Each structure stands twice: as structure tokens, then as C-alpha cells.
Amino acid sequence: CGQDPRWRGKVHELASRGLTLDALLLFYKGLGRDYMEHFEGATSTTEDVVRGAVVPLSHHEQCAHSEIMMGSKCARPDTMATHNWSNLYRDLVAAMVAFALDETDFEMLAGMLDRDPEQVERWVRAAGVGSHSFWVCAHCVNQHAGICGGNPHRSKDSVTGREHEVCGCGLAKAWNDTQPVCRDDGRSIPCEMNKFDDMMETLSASDPRFSQLIAVDVELRLFSRAWCVAEIAAGYRMGVHQRLKTWSLQALEEHEERLRQLRIEDMEASRKEDRDEILDKISDHAAFDAQLQELLWKDLVPSWQHMDAAQQMESVGHIVRWHGIARRPGSLRRVVCQQRPGEQSLGADADDAISEASRARTISL
């Protein structure tokens, strides 16, 4: 398919739909206020937001929501965000902010998004990273050319408990087998959901700084989703710079045994044809599983215990910075903290910072 000019044209179209962090935070602030009035940061999933805000807000234009967010300006993505739709949308946004700000995890950022998103905006502005652009399928795929018109699994909104509404835009849908298809492998040319690997390859080949954010949900369900794991493996194979962002290091440690049992054949996808296509592209499933384990435990999963002194002090610096932000005048939050068990002493000042912030929990004033 890669040699078909129609396929390449669609890949390049997708690759021009990046959205900036500034645009993302502006959209986030409107949730629960200007649209999707029932939105709750601690409850609403990415699927809820796609069905309840992304699709309705792009109904008239029948285009990818990122094009509306960016005012129809083309933005080449700096980073591809790999995420699962069952994750909280708040946590997806927090992971993207954490990536741009070079934070190790996003637990406290998620709390700030709940209580003071303007503070997050100010920090992003001060760091000069608001123009960093992401490609995230929830916004950058044209949902009106795909899932908007149906709800075959009768999924329900996490807050209201009502079935997600479907869209009556009437735009023709393009699935894995929609004509025209490539001669060599039968993949649909107009479909937007079957070109993520090609898009990543195009972006990484033209920009050596192109990166991949792996936004992991608290329960680590991302690693059970076939599309997500396939994207991670593709980025690894292409040599893309990959960075894992989690709720906390403790969340990874708690699920370590389950992660070590991952098998591509056990993973799920919303549509059977998607799962079948992913499995068909992997010739040796056992070798793929072994590669995934190597990627997880040698390249992606951070380990505080094995950091050298300089890395530990850098992490402490981040903790101290969070501590300062939490106490800054005008912030609507404070932190209550406890020492992380088993941490090595780094000196009185550093230990004070850790005990103040490393295991922070956000509470309302």
C-alpha cells in the first residue's frame, strides 16, 4: 500500500492534523462549562468525551476535531500520543502536559486539572511548551468518517449512565474494507484507522526529534488494547524516541506480574476486524511478545531504585518544583504527603522535599 499515491496522500493528510498543547488545554477548560456539561474529571473517560464533546462540536464541519481546535491550520505533530479510550480524559491530558514539562508522572497534574486548570496553563506558558504539538486519535481522526453513527456495544456515559448518543451527520463511513482498496493487501485507502504505523514512519523519517508518548492509565488497561500495543511496538521498531507517562511509579509496580504475562493474542480491540488486521501483520506472535517484554522492562518502565545520584536529584528537583507550585499564591490546591517507603536518603533538604511531595495526594481547600 505504501507505494499507492492515494494511500500516501491519506497518510500525509493525517500527519498534518496535529494539535498544540495550548489548544488542548483551551478545549479542556470548556468541558463541563461550555459543552458536555456533565463532564467530571475523575469519572469521564476519553470515549465519553469523544461521544459527548468531540463528535457534537465537529458535527457541522464533519471533519477531525483537531482541525477545529487549530482553526483549520495544519500542524505537523511533534509527538504521537498512544492511549486507550477507557482511560480518564483528564489523565490523558495530564499525561500530555507531563510529557511536555518533562515530569516523571502525572498524578499531581491530574489534580491540578481538576481544581485549577489555569495554573496548568500558566506553567505551560512559563515553560514555553504550549506550541508543542501532539497527534492523538481521539481528536485527530475524523470520527464522522468512522464511529460517530453507531454504538454497537451500547456503551454508556460514565457519569450519566445513559447510552452514548450517535451522530446523524450522514457522512459516508470508511472501514477496513471500504473501497477502494490497495491491490497488494486489500487494505482500505479512505479508512483513517488503518494508517497509524505508516503515519508514524512518515513523521519519524522526516523529523529525527519525533517522539511517542505512551499515556498509561491507572489500571494499565492500555497494555491490553491491541491497537495500543501495536503502536508501541511499531514505534520501537522504527527507533522513535518513546517515553512512558504513568499515574505513578507505584501503579506500575502493583501491576508488574500482569504486565509480565502480556500476550498479543490475548489483547482486545473494539472491532474484531481491527484485531484480526493487527494479528495478521505480526508474523511471529511469540517473538513479538518477547520484544514487548524487552521494551517494557529494559526501555520504558522507569525504576527509582536504579537511578544514579544525578537522576535522583533531578527527580527531587521536580518534586520541589511541584511543592512550590502547590503553595504559590492563587493556587486552589494544597498537598498532603507522606514519605515513600524504602527511599534512600539524599540529604536533609532532599528528604524534606520528598516527604513533602513525592507521595502527594490532592485535596480541596
How many DSSP H or I helices? 16
Mean pLDDT score: 82
Q: Please count the beta strands (DSSP E, at least 2 residues each).
A: 7
What's the helical proportion of residues? 40-55%
**Which stretches of 5+ consecutive residues score pLDDT under 50?**
302-309, 326-365
Give the overall shape, derived from the CA principal axes: globular
What is the structural class? Answer: alpha/beta
Gyration radius (Cα, Å) is 21 Å
How would you characterize the largest beta sheet?
A: 5 strands, mixed
Explain the overall architecture.
The protein is of the alpha/beta class and 365 residues long. The protein has a domain of 246 residues. The chain is 45% helix and 7% strand. The protein has 16 helices and 7 strands. A 5-stranded mixed sheet has the order 1-3-2-4-5, sandwiched between helices. The protein has a two-stranded antiparallel ribbon with strand order 6-7. Helix 10 links the parallel strand 4 and strand 5. The protein is globular and about 50 Å long. The C terminus is likely disordered.
Write the layout of secondary structure elements.
Blueprint: H1 5-14, E1 19-20, H2 21-30, H3 46-57, H4 65-69, E2 79-82, H5 89-101, H6 107-115, H7 117-127, E3 133-135, H8 137-140, H9 196-206, E4 211-215, H10 226-238, E5 241-245, H11 249-254, H12 256-259, H13 272-281, H14 285-300, H15 309-327, E6 333-336, H16 348-357, E7 361-364
Parallel strand pairs: 2-3, 2-4, 4-5
Antiparallel strand pairs: 1-3, 6-7
Helix pairs in contact: 2-5, 2-7, 5-6, 6-7, 9-10, 10-14, 15-16
